[in-house]
Amino acid sequence: MRSVTAYATPAAKEPFAKTTIERRDLGPNDVLIKVAFAGICHSDIHTAREEWGTAHFPLVPGHEIAGTVEEVGSAVGKYSVGDRVGVGCMVDSCRECENCLAGEEQYCLKGNTGTYNSIGKDGRPTDGGYSSHIVVDQDFVLAIPEGVALDVAAPLLCAGITLYSPLKHWGAGPGKNVAIVGLGGLGHMGVKIAHALGAEVTVLSQTLSKKDDGLKLGADHFYATGDQQTFKDLAGTFDLIINTVSAPLPMGDYLSLLRLDGTIVSVGAPGEPMEVPVFSLLSQRRSWAGSGIGGIRQTQEMLDFCAEHHLGAEIEVISGDQIDEAYDRVVGSDVRYRFVIDTASF
Ligand code: NAP
Ligand code: ZN
To answer: All domains of the chain, ordered by start, with CATH?
Structure first.
């Protein structure tokens, strides 16, 4: 075991404080990563505030990790000391079920091992990236391509892949009319990636306050969902809508925006159920689907795509003692567009 510095919260809704945690000794396939930056995902907040159920405390969240390799285990062949690497939402899976074998480890039939708030193979709760170092099996470590700086790369490991995966799965590209609901951490990466894929992109945000930003990020159109006229004007418009909102939405209103055979994909994950008016689905053979992060292979594909298209997150870098304030700002939709913790501040 080695002691490393981390920021942890001792109980639900309690402030974060600097502490020391233990990382396991390197097994043959393990990589010791010196974390440079860790993004703050709204999932960290849902977990730390127990909006998704009971969590393990003290909790060290963080699943948008970018850093450099500091040490490798005896059998590690994929990475060398000094390599620029990332870790996303999972650090292991069963590797044997049909989904793992298909490269969809996030849908492991035995449940993947989350980067934090999960139980690792050693039987201990996992601790995430709000930490100076992390030890991860090489098969769950990603290579960050040259040309993408570590700070703007960190949010790609969750926000980036969570949007890239459904955009690819549902065929976002030239001739497709795509809407992104919610311009936060996930949403702003959705705009960038959907635009780079060649789709016509619309942002649906609560107000027009982020309109200039949305258009600069690559959106072609921007509408306020606080204005009911938007739903009348855009009825039957979209092939694909990705809903990134962290709270329940009136699904009937959003389904009405889909054209024949259109799909709305929930990636936003509120703790409460959402109702669906069935007539909104059947009237235009519409679908309501969900999508969770992406597999390791596709996460690497996304990182390489972002490098090729010069994409990174729009970030505000913070120190460890600003985590609580950042959480409140994310919940208040006041993030432009991802907070990233600089571990040099620890
Ligand atoms: P975020 O930065 O807070 O962005 C969410 C955005 O949704 C806000 O910026 C806001 O955008 C909009 N919004 C917030 N509350 C709203 C409300 N009551 N009504 C309408 N719009 C609202 O959060 P995030 O980090 O992008 O994460 C978003 C959600 O995705 C969270 O629930 C998170 O847990 C989930 N998530 C899921 C996956 C997955 O694998 N499926 C992965 C990561 C995160 P506007 O100001 O533009 O309206
Ligand atoms: Zn996340």
So the answer is: 2-158+294-345 (3.90.180.10), 160-290 (3.40.50.720)
